Structure formats: C-alpha cells, structure tokens
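>> Question from a student workshop board

For tomorrow's exercise we were told to take the sequence and the ligand below, predict the bound structure, and bring the output to class. My setup keeps failing. Could a helper post the expected result so I can at least see what it should look like? The ligand is iron/sulfur cluster.
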Amino acid sequence: MKPNGGCGSCSHFLRLAVNSNLSLPLAPEVAEQVVSSGLRELNVSVDGARQETYEQYRVGGDLALVLENCRKLAAAKARCGSTTPRLNLQFVAFAHNVADADDMHRLAGELGMNLRLFKGVVPGRDWDREGKWQYCVGPIPVPCIFLWGTAVVSSDGGVLPCRGAFYREDDMGQIALDPDELGESTFRSVWNGRRFQNARRFYRARQGAAEEERHICFNCPNTVMFERWREHRARGGSRADFDVGYTLNDIWNYFWNRRPHVALRRHRTDSRIEATRPVP
Ligand SMILES: C[S@@+](CC[C@H](N)C(=O)[O-])C[C@H]1O[C@@H](n2cnc3c(N)ncnc32)[C@H](O)[C@@H]1O
Ligand code: SF4
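>> Workshop helper replied:
Here is what the output should look like for this input. Compare the format with yours to find the bug.
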C-alpha cells in the first residue's frame, strides 16, 4: 500500500479498506505510514484466540506477533491523533475454532478493536448445519456488483471477473505487467472487452452459443438467481415470496468446483506471461 502523502483522507473520493493477516513484523514507522495513508478501515484476520486454533487456518502464523502488530497500529493512531483506520478484528468461524468465539470478543475488547465475526465458507456442505452462525452476507437477486463496479487484478496481470474466480481460463483478459508493453492490453480495454460485455449481457438474457455457456458467469449462481428473479417478477412475485435458492456456501462451491476443468494460475515469478486462451 502506498501512502498518499499523509493528507489524512483518500483522494478522489475513494474510501479504501484493506483485509490483512498482518502476520509480518511491523516497524513503528510503517505503522505510522499506514495511519497517515488515509486508509479508512483495516480488517485483521485473526481466526483463533489461541495459537493452537489460530494456526490451523493460518498455517505457520504467529498469533502473538499479529496481536502485537494490532497494538502497534493502535499506538500509531494515538501518536498521530488519528481516528483512522478503523481497526477491526476479523474472526472467520469454522468447526475447528468456533469454541473461541467468546474469547475473541474479550480479545477485541482488550485491543480496543471492533470484532467482525462471521461464518466461513467451506468446500462441500456447510459445517454449521443448524445455522447457528451467520455468513457475512446472504445472496440477494441483484446484478452482480463485480461486473459493473469492482476491479480484480491478479499479480500475473490476469483480470478476473470477481474474487471467486481462481483459474486462468476464467480470466477476462490480461494486462501487461510492464507499463512499456501496455499497448492494447490496458485494464480499460479488458473492462470494455467482449468477455465482460458477454457477462453483463447474461444479466439481460442468459443465452449464448455453446462456447459462451462455458463462461464462468453463465452458470454462476448469481446469474442464474437473477434470471429466476426476473421470471418471478414477471409472474407478479415479490421479494417476500422469492426463494433465493442458495446459501453463500453453495455459491462459493460453484467456484471451488470449477477447479478440475481449468488451468491453475501462474504468478509473477514467470519472466513473461503468455497470452491466455479464455472462452468468449
Ligand atoms: C481471501 S482473504 C485475503 C486477505 C488477507 N490475505 C488475509 O489473510 O486476510 C480475504 C478475506 O476473506 C476472509 N476469509 C478467508 N477465508 C474465508 C472463508 N473460508 N470464508 C469466509 N471468509 C474467509 C478473510 O478473513 C479475509 O478478510
Ligand atoms: S462469476 Fe458470478 S460473481 Fe463472478 S463476476 Fe461472474 S456473475 Fe459475478
């Protein structure tokens, strides 16, 4: 993250929030740069109140170090007299760590942080069959927020449709990693390119050639749900009697289950990134 000159607020009306595991040693001066960068919110992933549970999900992580980093940030805020960034302790609950939930409340209180506690998604069936815990969001029938409003760019230059797309074949396009090589491969050209246009079109009419049906957005639960919602509305249905039909876990599993069919990503360690061959 590059500080924006320490003006205390993000420029161009952008509100920046960052999710971090905060798991590397944090120098006090870097903590002050984070505070003066204008960052509004920092969600620190702490998925366990004890080292034993923490490291089950954060393999190799050191809970004491992360908590020390949280204290350093709070101290930097105090030194700078800053109310930002808002510091949140983010606890994603699973079967293996959910017994720590009360301790996480206490820990957040001790650190003076807000606790964001929600249920984690998992491959396969929901781990919390009784529905005692809530996901951070529930599926709702609206056009996909990613396709119109969120840029997701991987370190290998691949432009992804959304955060759920892990695999190279699902990239919407590729931008050059070196500015001197940009040419046509700018973010703008990908954002306005055929794959994004097709994906947005599926929200008006979920139709396409056989090849287009392989597009990750075609059978995405969000697209399918929106098509069902439009049909429901056409029959005079309302939000109150609409069956969403999916949980967040189901949606995440859609992405997870694409795995066997497609290629793994490659990352920046490659000296050159070859062109990908995404479906339309
Ligand atoms: C994919 S992580 C990446 C951000 C950062 N590297 C980190 O470790 O927090 C983005 C967010 O997803 C949350 N997260 C991780 N695993 C999750 C899961 N299985 N279900 C729901 N949220 C999850 C994390 O708490 C984090 O805030
Ligand atoms: S795959 Fe689904 S969530 Fe992702 S961008 Fe496409 S429609 Fe949106």
